[in-house]
Amino acid sequence: MKHKLKQEFQPSDRLNQEVEKKLPLSCKILEDIERSEFAKDRDRILFSRPFRRLQHKAQVFSNETGDHYRTRLTHTLEVSQIARSLARYLDANEDLVEAIALGHDIGHTPFGHQGERVLDQVMSSEDKLGLIKYPLNFGGFKHNFNGLRVLDVVQSKFEDYKGLNLSWQVLEGILKHTKIRKHNDCEEHKNCWDIKRFVSNQSLIERLYMKYGFSVTLEGQIVAIADEIAQRQHDIDDGLRNKELGFQLSKLYEEINIILDSIISKSSQDTNVNKEHLEDLIELITRLKNNLHKSKDNTSLLKTDYLVRNIIEYFILDVYANSRVNILSNPKLTLDGERKILPEHVVDFSPLGKQLNKELERVVKYRILNSYEVNKFDGKSRFIIRQLFKAFYTNPRQMPSYALERLAKELKRNCDIYAIILKNEDETISLDNIDFNKLSNSEVKVLISSLKLENLEQHLEAPSKIKSILQAPENEQGINEEFYHELKSINSLESDKLDTNKERLLKCLVENHYAYLSTICDYIAGMSDNYAKSEYKKLYLVE
């Protein structure tokens, strides 16, 4: 049953049209070529350096475990293919789906979710690394939020313009391929990821529709469910491939067969689903059960492949059948200005597919995550990421020049809040024109100390009100509690809400500290597993 749902977005949906006007060459041939805005976005992501680094970032197992285990890159390609299949069935925009799919994991750290957790704990003040004197909550770290930062801030393609200048639909889909809130009630907890810390273009935030926890485009919802399908099938494939986990293929088949029997027997009792639709869903899951039964005489390798491809096919068909009914029964494509949005979550598993997905995750995924091998890899990963952060926090000149240049630019930008001056013996250091290559060792020491919020009473030129706060006594842990209280209070204020020079100076100190931490965070997050291990060896091991 065909239905037209493809959304026709206009070029004006790109964030900066002035940048785009400078790109095309004046050439008559170009008039004969049709290339959508989303095709441009897809290609910009595909040909970017962060995308290439995904080949050496772990999915679950280290990329050195074997040639056939998933990496972030192979996972991304599988998500892209699954998403394109669903897009074609649901008549969605395939260029937009592919752009979101290719970029959805571009913000991942080395070593998978363990690297992500370390950076989140540092950037949300939960981990002081034994070094950070005044830990402040800067909104944490999450790979989907960082994906926006990579594409909108860190990865430069144009002169005098940050980021790749992607369409808002692509960025919104990348952000919402996974959860965007740590808690159900972020207002109460006050420590959910802060979107304002991850994008440079503040006008983008309103186009991200943060009040919705799901993507407001059909294409974004398709990629989110494709990501879930891809994870489930390669949990099985990679888990069976790793013999140390003790998976027995025949027992896994038996376990899945029991699960399918249970779902089928209980499905007839579901009164929340239209009878005709329920019959279609039962037919799909029964077909999966029968197909798996046919493979009992195959070799182990073929039997694994057969299991994986049948599960992929089932989930794609289940999502298509369920989503089609959701869309046709409640097609609330609404207009928000000139932009079409979906105000409801319509692309999803059916109740039967959702149950199977949950059971497969329980049976396979947690056996992998609880295994000796994965936990050993995770422990090593956390150690390496923490040690790298500690090394760069202690001495940022161990990072490459481009990272220091980015830090210097942020310090200069923060001078718009307050023009901080540091004293170094008989000289002064102005933060609006920092060049790490031209500073003496003593000047670098004073600068870094200020970025760490340390020794400010000695080096910071400040009004008497600030001086009195800086000179307040420290407690037994060496913390100036009065100063720390002021820092935490000013951290929650927007720069345009500041009234006094005292507030502006304190805010600038906080923002400089954030610039210091975020520069280190950006550098580490962009590393591949191999590069992170190489950097650790160079910093800590004697050859």
Q: Quick check: average pLDDT?
A: 87
- C-alpha end-to-end distance: 66 Å
The CATH homologous superfamily of the largest domain is termed Hypothetical protein af1432
Task: Report the structural category.
Answer: mainly alpha
Question: What can you tell me about this protein's structure?
Answer:
With 543 residues, this protein is mainly α. It has three domains: 11-212, Hypothetical protein af1432 (Orthogonal Bundle); 219-376, no CATH class; 398-538, no CATH class. It contains 22 helices and four strands. Strand 1 (334-336) and strand 2 form a beta hairpin. The chain is elongated.
Structure described in brief:
The protein has 543 residues and is mostly helical.
What are the main properties of this structure?
Hypothetical protein af1432; two-stranded antiparallel sheet; mainly alpha; elongated; 543 residues; 3 domains; 3% strand
Question: How is the topology of this model organized?
Answer:
Layout (H helix, E strand, L loop, with lengths): L16 H5 L15 H10 L2 H5 L18 H18 L4 H10 L8 H12 L19 H12 L13 H8 L10 H4 L28 H24 L7 H19 L7 H19 L6 H30 L4 E3 L2 E3 L9 H19 L2 H23 L6 H14 L6 E4 L2 E4 L10 H11 L4 H4 L4 H7 L10 H11 L9 H25 L3 H12 L3
Antiparallel strand pairs: 1-2, 3-4
Helix pairs in contact: 2-5, 4-5, 4-10, 4-13, 5-8, 5-10, 6-15, 6-21, 8-10, 10-13, 10-14, 11-12, 11-14, 12-13, 15-21, 15-22, 16-21, 20-21
